[in-house]
Design brief:
globular, alpha/beta, 205 residues
């Protein structure tokens, strides 16, 4: 009960995910989804199991973007793609209070950085932002990065810092440009964070 419509959004690919919905205003509400994958892998296709469910459960449209990846396209390529996608939604007539931004892992990192960029550039802010196990500290300074490395069911902690260096483009990993946990988090819309107690990214959340 879901339709997927791929299209080109500037220099990168994107897709609309539309689910059958009984919500009267579902077509006017949109979730901008930023996929995870350590900024190295992943795409809207790999995350359709998530985006199709969110479209159905959320009673909204989902716009998933295939931002360009590191190491060929390190910071700030992904951030500029996410900001461009948000500007596209505004240009398409979506009211900012009807837009939510969400992402998992690296996409959670990108979600927070996008919200900060929108704030700092004076653009209208979305209704809210959602981080699903967000990777907010690329310097891996959180306690759970070591204490949970043997119990996390998904992420290999030993490879996270390597991925961070590939993405950083020479910027210090604890810079708020890369790690929103160190940023000034004022003036943002409501935030929802989901994380599991066994994850290496628990401290990031």
């Amino acid at each position: 009960n879901t339709e997927i419509h791929p299209f080109k959004l500037g220099a990168f690919a994107a897709e609309w995910v539309d689910a059958e919905s009984d919500v009267a205003d579902a077509k006017t509400r949109v979730l901008l989804y930023l996929h995870g994958g350590a900024y190295l892998v992943g795409s809207p296709i790999t995350h359709r199991n998530i985006t199709t469910r969110l479209a159905g459960y959320g009673g909204c449209r989902v716009l998933a973007i295939n931002y360009r990846k590191s190491p060929q396209y390190p910071f700030p390529y992904a951030l500029e793609a996410a900001v461009s996608a948000y500007r596209y939604l505004l240009a398409e007539g979506f009211a900012p209070e009807r837009i939510t931004i969400a992402g998992d892992s690296a996409g959670g990192n990108l979600t927070f950085l996008t919200a900060l960029a929108l704030r700092d550039r004076g653009l209208p802010l979305p209704a809210g932002i959602i981080g699903i196990s967000p990777w907010t500290d690329l310097s891996s300074s959180g306690e759970s990065m070591s204490s949970h490395r043997g119990v996390d069911p998904m992420l290999p902690a030993r490879r996270i810092r390597h991925a961070a260096k590939l993405h950083a483009n020479g910027i210090a990993l604890d810079s708020p440009l890369l790690s929103p946990v160190f940023a000034e988090l004022y003036g943002l819309p409501p935030i929802l964070v989901h994380v599991g107690e066994s994850e290496v990214l628990l401290s990031d959340s």
